[in-house]
């Protein structure tokens, strides 16, 4: 069992540890999604996901070339 200064410091550490993260998951998700499907406007993280998306959702279309 802790007393005095130790107890106060432990409470501060626990409060900092349990504090919610700043920002939202929606904002973080928007930053990570950089590639957009020109047909259905779905946002994807990278070119490989876009190629997979075209294979499953738009099989008759060719995926656009990688634009870097």
Automatic annotation (TrEMBL):
Location of the region described as Disordered in the Swiss-Prot/TrEMBL record: 1-24
A GO molecular-function descriptor: zinc ion binding
Keyword Signal found: no
The species this protein was found in: Sphenostylis stenocarpa
GO CC annotations on file: cytoplasm; nucleus
Lineage: Eukaryota, Viridiplantae, Streptophyta, Embryophyta, Tracheophyta
Principal place of residence: cytoplasm
Listed name of the protein: C2H2-type domain-containing protein
Signal peptide: none
Xref: PANTHER family: GEO09665P1-RELATED, ZINC FINGER PROTEIN 706
C2H2-type domain ranges (all copies): 35-63
């Amino acid at each position: 069992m802790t007393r005095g200064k130790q107890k106060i410091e432990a409470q501060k550490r626990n409060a900092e540890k349990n504090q919610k993260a700043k920002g939202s998951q929606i904002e973080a998700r928007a930053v990570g999604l950089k590639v957009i499907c020109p047909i259905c406007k779905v946002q994807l993280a990278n070119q490989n996901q876009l190629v997979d998306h075209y294979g499953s959702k738009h099989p008759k279309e060719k995926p656009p070339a990688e634009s870097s």
